[in-house]
Design goal:
about 625 residues, mainly alpha, Serine Threonine Protein Phosphatase 5, Tetratricopeptide repeat, about 0% strand
Length: about 625
Amino acid sequence: MSVEREELAALLRTCGIARDLGQARRHHARILSSSSHRSDRFLLNLAVQMYGRCGDLQSAKEVFNSIAQPNAFSWNIMISACAQNGRAEDAMLAFQKNPHKNQVSWNALITAFAENSNLHAAREIFERIPELRSVLSWNIMISAYARCGQFFQAKDLFDRMEIRDTVSWNIMIQAYSNFGDLSGAEQLFRSMPDRDTGSWNSILTAYAISGHLEKAKQTFDRTPERDLITWNTMIAAFLRYNDMDNAITMFQRMPRLDLVTWNAMVQAFTRNGHLESAKRIFNTMLERDIVSWNLILQLYSQTLKISKTRQWFDSMPEHNTASLTIMLTAYAADGHLRQARNVFDCMPDRRLVTWNAMMAAYVNSKDQASLLDLFLEMPQRDIASWNVALQGFAQARHLEHAFGIFHEMPEWDIVSWTALLGAYALAAMVEEARAVFDQMPEHDTISWSAMVGAYASSGMIAHAKRLHDLMLDRSLASWNAMLAAYAQTGALLESRRFFDSMPELDEISWNSMLAAFVYAGNGGCALEFLQELAVNAVSANGKTFATVLCVCDHIGLLKRGRREFSRMLFDYAIHPNIEHFGSMADILGRSGMLSDAKELVYTMPYQPDIVSWGSLFGTCKIL
C-alpha cells in the first residue's frame, strides 16, 4: 500500500469516528481527483463507512453505487450504514441484493431492525440465520431486548446460549440493572467466570442507576483497571443525583479527559438551566463535536428567545439531524409552526425522532388534520409515534380517531393507556376512563393523577379525594388535579386549605388557587392573591394572565385589564394567545369601547374563532 493510500485510509477512518462531515467531503473530493484512487475499492469502502457514520446516507449510497465490483466488505458496510442511519428497510434491500452474504451481513441486518426497536423483525431475521449463530448474533439480539425494556425475552435468550463471552454477561448485568433488579445484577456479576473492565463498569452503572452512590464509589475504588468509561460513569452517577461538588472533584482527578467527559459536564449544567456555567465549560473545551454544540443549542432553546437560539444555530460549524430537530422543536414551542415545518421539509435525512417532533408540534398547535396527514406519511413508526398521534386526537376530544389509533397500535405502553384514559376524561366519560384505568397492566403517578383529574373535572370530588388518598406516591400533578377539583366547584375555603397543605407548589398550583377565587366570584381577592405570587417570587405565565384578564372582564376593570395585557408582553415576554385577545376584546366592549374591541379582533395575529366573535357580538347586545 502506498504512503498516500495509507494516509487517505487513516483520514477516512478518523473522519468517520469524529463524524466530521465537512472534512469527510474534502477527503472524498481528494480521492475523486486522483486517477489512481477514484476506483480504489478499498478506499471507496472506507468512504461508504465514513459517510454512514457521519449521517450522510445519500452520499454513502452514491459512493457504493460507484464501486465497479462491490465485494463482501462493500455490501456489509452499506448494510451497516443503513442501520446506523435508522433505515432498516434500505438495509433489508441491500441485504437481499448482496451476493456475498455471510455472518457479518446477517448481524448487520439484525442490528438495523434492532436499532429501530423493531424487535419482531429482528428476531425473525435472527431465527433465519442459516448456519450456526455466532456469539455476536446472540449478543445483538439480547442487547436489543434489554435496551427496549423486554427483560424476560433477553434473559430467555441468555439462558439458551451454549457459549457466552464476557460481553454476553455484561449485557445481562445491564439488563438486570435497567429492570430494577439490583440483587440479580450483583448475583450475575459474582457468577461471572471472567471479568473485564466492561464488567466492572456494568455493575458500577447498576449501582449508579439504583441510587446506591456509596456502593458505586466502593466499586469504583475496587475496579482493578479503570478506563474512561469507568470515570465517566462515576461522574454521571454524581450528576444524576445533582452532586455537582463530587462530580467536579472527580472531573478534576481524571488522568485524561475525552469529549464524553466534557460533554457530560456541559450537559449537567444545561440540565439544571445554568447557561453561563455551561457556556464557560464549553469555551474551555480544547475540542468540540456536534454533541457539544447541540447541548448549548438545546439549552438556548429552553431558556432564551427564539432569535437567540437561531443565532447560536447559525454560528454552529455544522448541523446534523439532532441540531435540526432541536431547532424544529424550538420554533414549534414558540408558536412558529410554519418555520418548524420549513426546517422539517429541508432536512436531508429525517429520523424517527424528527417525525415525532413534527407530529408533536402539530399536537401542540391543535392542527389535527396536518397531524393525521404526517402520521400516514411516515415511512415507519415506533411506539412513540403512535403515542404522539393518540395524544393529539385525545387532547382534541376526537374520540373516534383516538380509539381507532389505540386499537391499531402493534403494542401499548403506559403512555398509550394513559392517553386513552385522558381522552375519556376530557370527554367527561368518567366511567369509561375508570374502565381503562382498571384495565391498565400497571399504573404510575401520571395515570393515577389522570384518573384523579377525570373525577375532579366531572365534579366527583369525593371520588377524586378517595383515589388521591389511595395513592402511595403522590406527585405534584396529583395534588394539582385535586386542587383544581376544589377550585372548579367554587369551594374557596376547601381550596385554600388544600393549597396550604400541599408539600410543594409550582406555577400550576398558584394558577389553580387564583382560579378558585374567580370560580367563587371573588375577583377582588383574586387580584390581592396576585400580590402573594409576587411575594413568593412565582413567575406569572400565560395561564396566570388569562385568569387575571377574566377577573378584570367580570369586574369591569378596564385600566387594570389594559395594564395586565401590556405587562404580559413587555414585562414577561409572553405573547398573548387567542384567549387573551378574546378577554381583552370583551373588557373593551363591556366598557363601551366597541370600535377598539372590533379593531383588536380584526388586527390580532390569529384567525378570529367563535369565542372571539362571540365576545364582540355579546358586547354589541349589551350596548
